[in-house]
Amino acid sequence: MRYGTGAALVVAAGVVWSVQGVLIGNIAEAGSWTVLLWRSLGMLPVMLLWIGPGQTWEAIRAMGWAGVLGGLGLVFAFGGAITALQSTTVANAVLLFSASPFLAALFGRVILGERVSALTWGAIALALGGILVMVGGVGQIGGGTGFGTLAALLSAAGFAAFTVAVRWGRVSDTRPAVLLGGVFSMLVGGLVALVTSQPLLVPPLDISLAFGMGAVTLTGGMALYTAGSRVVPAAQATLFSLIEVLLAPLWAWAFLSETLSKNTAIGGAILLTAVALNAALGLQRR
């Protein structure tokens, strides 16, 4: 696979993930951890069919520790994001999620020995600046609790860890990491829901929306991202995926009648510029 194809797949993953906000906005009663449980459960049959009947265990063994580490990273990514959005402001959480490229660059440099060029660092800084404009300035960082801030950083670290683990494994089939992420997230979501007394049996529409997210948008996005990140350095892959942050407010404005602020439009334009610049730099180097 060429770099350009991999970059396009990662961007496509961000586009697919961006519609999940609209789906969650239509969930009426299910709590966050209950949504995590049903969404993760929706991933499993699709992933099992994708890997192939009778081949799951062999695929997991072939992936080795890279799959386990990647799956655990996804637990932090999924669970941390939900906890952050429940414990702090959306602006604070989104800004902290954007730390993922920085963490991926650091993990990739230390673990994989990937060199991060000054131009890539510049594109990351530009993207962070765009997200800062979107959420209304640096003053918004203190808008939530310390627990929510920690959860958001753990989510960013989890996604960066998944990205690096996939590349560290150096294997052709990375689907087991996504499958393990779904299994681990389902167990954690169910356990935390029970501990916090969130009902697991919610209205059928809520279950259907959560299950559909897992089966279609989450699994589809992870499939695209996993395939693309095999040929795209970790720092660049997480940066490309930030297209989700740009598109999610647009879908909410179009389908949920949420206000699209001037800051969102300006910051989104900056973020899109950073993503396009990063893509152009990657293609030019190759």
From TrEMBL:
Keywords, alphabetical: Membrane, Transmembrane, Transmembrane helix
Segments forming domain EamA: 5-135, 147-278
Keyword Protein transport found: no
Zinc listed as a keyword: no
InterPro entries in alphabetical order: EamA_dom, EmrE-like
Region forming the signal peptide: none
Residues passing through the membrane, by range: 31-51, 63-84, 90-112, 119-141, 147-166, 178-201, 207-227, 234-253, 265-283
One Gene Ontology term, aspect cellular component: membrane
PANTHER family (alphabetical): ACYL-MALONYL CONDENSING ENZYME-RELATED, MOBA-LIKE NTP TRANSFERASE DOMAIN-CONTAINING PROTEIN
Protein's recorded name: EamA family transporter
